[in-house]
Model the fold of this input.
Amino acid sequence: MDPFLAEIEQTIARWHGIAAPNDPAQRMAADLAETIRAFEAQRGALAFEDEPASFEAALRQTMER
Amino acid sequence: MTDLADLSLVEAAEAVRSGDVRSVELLDAIWANLDAANPKLNATIWLDREGAEAAARAADQAVRDGATQDGAPLGPLHGVPMAHKDMYYQAGKLSTCGSAVRQDWRPAVTATVIERLAAAGAYTFGGLNMAEFAQNPTGHNKTFGDCHNPWNLPFITGGSSSGSGVSVAARYNYMALGSDTGGSIRLPASACGVTGIKPTQTRVSRYGVMPLSFTCDNVGPLCRTARDCARVMRVIAGRDPRDPTSADVPVPDYEAALDGDLRGLRIGVPGNWFFDGADDAVAAAVDLATDVLEARGAVVQEIDLPLMDAIAACGGIVSRVEGATIHAQWMRDRPQAYGAHISGRMYPAYAIPATYYVEALSRRGPILQAFADEVFSKVDVLATPTIRTNLPTLAETDIDHGPAGTEHRFLAVSANTRPFNYLGLPAVSVPCGFDPNGCPIGLQIAGRPFAEARILRVADAYQRDTDWHRRRPPVLDAVTADGAVAA
Done:
């Protein structure tokens, strides 16, 4: 088994007690590498806010008037 | 005489209120098309014929009396039969959520939106097929069977509100509630050739509605026309004390905004993301659609959208983690009760770190602010394809039985709808043409938060000059004399 997939399966089993239910689950678990890559690619692109940020407040600030 | 099932929701409601048509006649028209076409399309999970017929008779009596039994005036949806995605709770009635897990489940509460529709005079005749737990963009369902596209049966209906799109398109429903976490109203609207709106996040109460992702779930209607959507939105939108996440923002008269006037409206057509890998027929249909809007006085311009990679990365984290969290106990206890396309998608989300989830959630407000500041300083609305490719078939997207790689085709269906869920922006899909397989193409119009009136005005203006939304799917033309549908 691919070491990345094996690690993912162990992590899920350890933390959640859930086993891969089928082949698609294993295939899509392997695709997590792409999820991580996409997320990591954002590092530095956006500053993490020190101040509290509210989505609901942003909705109101940008709303149609 | 016009087939009563061909009436739009607003036309049907006005016909009943004026006494020109009885509610029982609308219901008969629904049953006729349902009985003929539904065996091929599989859009329903349960029906309450007896209850609906009693409600229709009561509605007709109220018209004769000029008021309901309680003495209330007739509402804006008086006497209109409708059925909804089977995840809108009605106390004591079946609510399967399209799943084996809840196959026999009957909730103790009624959804606020169902109560509001009833207060407006509508009544419910059944529960509609849907993706299992609202978790796929195609219309596959392991437990209740796949939904089929009324324009071309082997093709997907879009999901997860599959039965909602199909029943409205096939003229056996005047309006169906759908839910939209990643496109689940707009995708079936696009694939089935009807009109559907995902409202601004927080615009409509979610009390009594099965959750998928607390952050990205939305309630909205699928109808024949933008005007229908406007009428329904006026009824269901607004603050609900039972849903503390619902916004306390005044609800405008959406129908009053439908004046057909687009003079000076700035429409942005994205130069990035939304047309990446688009099929020619889809791109051409959207191009022609913007020509129609331009002829009404809109100013169409290309615009590069900021932060799309960040929106995709963060949005994918949030909804997946929340869905997996809700289903964790059932995934431990009875994973085989799920279709593989559901459990297979949820499974990896259990490995996503909490720090990713919190970061994706924390960035949502700042990303919306930055996106809106940049985009809506240049344009008033965005126009994109709802689905950027020709529709795939059910077989091509069948993860449960297809080869490795099927999941990528499956997930690509919602590439153009998901961004607006993370951003929380309202977006409507209207039919704007057909692909080479005869399946509908959708035009997606998105706007600022709480700009439902504006995007519906654009959609309505488009429908004044086009007839895509009036066309009947061929499955109805194939109804034979004995009421069956020819193959």
Summary: The first helix of chain A runs from residue 3 to 16.
